[in-house]
User: Fold Multicopper oxidase from Desulforamulus aeronauticus DSM 10349.
Amino acid sequence: MIISPDVPNLPCVERNGVKYFELVVEPVQREILPGLFMQGYGYNGSIPGPTILVYPGDHVNFRVHNRLPEPTSVHWHGLDVPNIMDGVPDVEPSPLIPPGSYFDYNFKIVNHPGTHMYHTHHNALRQEMLGLSGGLIIQNPRLENVQRDYFIMLGEFALPDLPMGVVKPGVYPIDPHNHDFNFFTMNGRCFPFVTSLEVCKGERVRIRLGNTQEMAHPIHIHGHQFVVTAVDGNPIPPPARLTRNTILVASGETWDIEFVADNPGIWPFHCHIPHHMSNNMTDPAGGMFTTIVYK
Assistant:
């Protein structure tokens, strides 16, 4: 089972061999720390949007309802889909979804199992940096030797209404044009307001990392070494796999890493850029940071 801590999976209904999903694009208030909300754009009430789980060969229909005050679209990042379904209306025949309307993205999953994403591809500078992205994972129908399987979407946001060094409850609008980011998230939350990644000793653990936004993030694990097994939804042949403890996740990339839980304890898993390990430049550990906890 693939788990996205602090983010739900998107439900579907299957009828006549088609899996029907619904995505609602709407303004969202996302609680990133206790009582501290950022105001942005999300899917189904969440930033990032709910994680979509499918299988190779699935025939899928995504009905996307636009409840924003502006047009939008959805791009299926890394998927091989018909041109009209790719969701880039500025250059493709794929339609723009006006406010108050919907569009059905209908296609077959032809890619092999892997980690992908979805996100807006209209007015991307504004809409992506307001939070319009999510994970889309093509599951392997075959039994795998992985006991824990996690997905984490990385994010950074500028909340300029909070003075530097201040973290206090309230609702703060995201400024999508401001590159002075002061809050860094894993699945839309900042440490310590995150759900830890639970493991048991001896388990093989996979962590899938995705990034659609502005910055690259070097993600580092403590107490373990991991093997890099896939990039952009494509498996890396075993002879070419690297053993590492830090991996740079650039914008537009997904990476799958795996390790054996053989060193019990509570271990940090975080972006290694010091600025990104704080909440608005405050002293305690925060930001793009979680923990691996042995049960």
